[in-house]
Amino acid sequence: MTEQVKIFDTTLRDGEQSPGATMTVDEKLVVARQLEKLGVDVIEAGFAAASEGDAEAVSRVAATVSQPIVLSLSRTKRSDMESAIRSVEKAKNPGIHIFIATSDLHLQRKLMMTREEVVEAACWAVDFAKQHVDYIEFSAEDASRSDREYLTHVFGEVIKAGAVTLNVPDTTGYAMPTEFGDLIRYLVENTPGGKDVTWSAHCHNDLGLAVANSLAAVRNGARQIECTVNGIGERAGNTSLEEVVMALKTRADLFADVTVGVETKQIFPSSRLLSQITGIAIPINKPVVGANAFAHEAGIHQDGVLKDKSTYEIMRPESVGLESNRLVLGKHSGRHAFVERLKDLGVDLSEVDVVKAFARFKALADKKKNIYDEDIVALVAEDVRAPDRYELVDLSVVHQAGGAPQATVRLRVDGEERSDSETGDGMVDACFKAISRIVGRSPKLERYQVNAITGESEAQGEAACSLSDDGTRVNGQGVHTDVIMASALAYVNALNKLEDRRRRRAADEVGGI
Ligand code: KIV
Ligand code: ZN
Predict the structure, then answer these.
(1) Are 66 and 202 contained in the same domain?
(2) 148 Cβ partners below 8 Å, 6+ apart?
(3) Is the CB of 513 under 6 A from ligand 1?
(4) What pLDDT does residue 511 have?
(5) What is the CA radius of gyration of the chain?
(6) What is the DSSP string of 198-249?
(7) Residue 97 Cβ < 6 Å to ligand 1
(8) What pLDDT was estimated at residue 505?
(9) What pLDDT score does 507 carry?
(10) pLDDT tens for residues 448-487?
């Protein structure tokens, strides 16, 4: 008899705590719909008490998706619990995720509470939530650095109060796989009532062990893994959904007692979509979804793969939604073929202005002979991003020999066209300065990078940048056949996000966890 390992996706909560990864409510809805298509079992849609924007996002996700359980995170405070309960009211399958720290370090230095006070607060919160919502998950923050016996006591008490899923976070990414697996087994065996609940693993990746720790947890009785698309999250991130799912599927021989319900062909579209929305580029060597994940460079490897793919490939690219023949459309492809391809790629057509996207596709096909899936996903991503206050209209750069390059930029600001010029240390620098001058803001450029999204000389450039201003950090992303244009689009996209953040900074915002 096999048991299911539930996939709990926290891209919209812990993932959003990644520096600069803040998403608008509309962007979160797009991601949530894709997560439903991906077949995750639980969506942690946010932390409703953090801000009005978070509460709205949770409640709109709750009203939109129907298959997964939709949760809001909550501290054990009454006001948090009330926001969380309100935010999931419209969900078909609502739930509340309550957490409090259990390590002595956190109790003494952060919460200033005794062990018994923590147990009391946890039970009060679970009991309170249970009066409104059946599905309650409880997390013992910093569990991997907590006293084991005390953990069994806390978990035992919250089970009595009505928690049905018990989460064991390795909050600081400190645990080693054998140690973490052992902890899960100990908790399952020694917690009163522990055999009747679902145990969950929530691992951070500070030592690069989040996936290994999650797998060790499953080997030792956990039946839920908390993870994020592309592994985004606080600091070094969370367990990567695509890696942990493909590890369980690829090594089903070692995990014969469990199954996982994810629709793996939606992995690649989900990964690209999130990267486009957050502006966080996918490292080229990222397992499963990186550009090189299925590329074979060495002659011996290429020879082997040509003879028999299994010589060097342990997974099929098609199984994660990456077609092996990725050349899909060209200049002569019609609207019908374009729309069919969008559907195959898992794009939600209700989110996309197909007429405009097709016009963008035709314009791209005039410049670029081969259009790949990545190009198409990039084309439609523009429609799912934050509403834009600033829109790049035109850009030209002149570079006279011996002189600094000069960029002239035309920008639409709140519908009105404005233009300005600036010189800079390079062409990109000149563009960024001209744009800053038009919008009257000079945020700090924290990071800037350009990649080719497909591997050919005429490939589109994908530029990503991080800007910070007033203590807020955002990522921007832009795609174009001209890398200077892609860079300017990324910069403008980041400025739009800064604008959006400014608007959303509600008075009662308490930030992430
Ligand atoms: O890492 C952590 O401990 C968390 C909890 C809130 C579950 O994210
Ligand atoms: Zn976490």
Answers:
(1) yes
(2) 183, 186, 187, 190
(3) yes
(4) 57
(5) 24
(6) EEEEEEB-TTS-HHHHHHHHHHTT--EEEEBGGG--STT-B-BHHHHHHHHH
(7) no
(8) 67
(9) 45
(10) 988 877 666 667 888 989 999 988 888 888 888 899 999 9
User: What single letter denotes the amino acid at residue 53?
Assistant: G
* HSE-up of residue 286 (Cα within 13 Å, Cβ side): 22
41 CA to centre of ligand 1 in angstroms: 18
**Cα 476 from Cα 498, distance rounded (Å):** 10
State whether 151 and 191 are in the same domain. yes
Phi and psi of 201, rounded to 5°? -115, 135
Nearest-CA residue for ligand 1 atom 1 is 171
On whether the CB atoms of residues 154 and 140 are closer than 8 A, the answer is yes
Domain that holds residue 343: 325-383
- Ligand 1 pocket test target in 103, 144, 171, 239 with most atoms within 8 Å of CB: 171
Neighbours of ion ligand 2 (CB under 5 A): 14
Separation of alpha carbons 184 and 176, rounded Å: 12
Find out whether 487 and 480 touch, Cβ atoms under 8 Å. no
Question: What's the confidence (pLDDT) of residue 325?
Answer: 45
d(CA 267, CA 231): 12
pLDDT score for 266: 94
Domain-embedded: residue 288: no
289 belongs to a structural domain? no
Residue stretches of the chain with pLDDT short of 70: 296-297, 299, 301-302, 323-328, 346, 369-370, 382-387, 454-458, 505-513
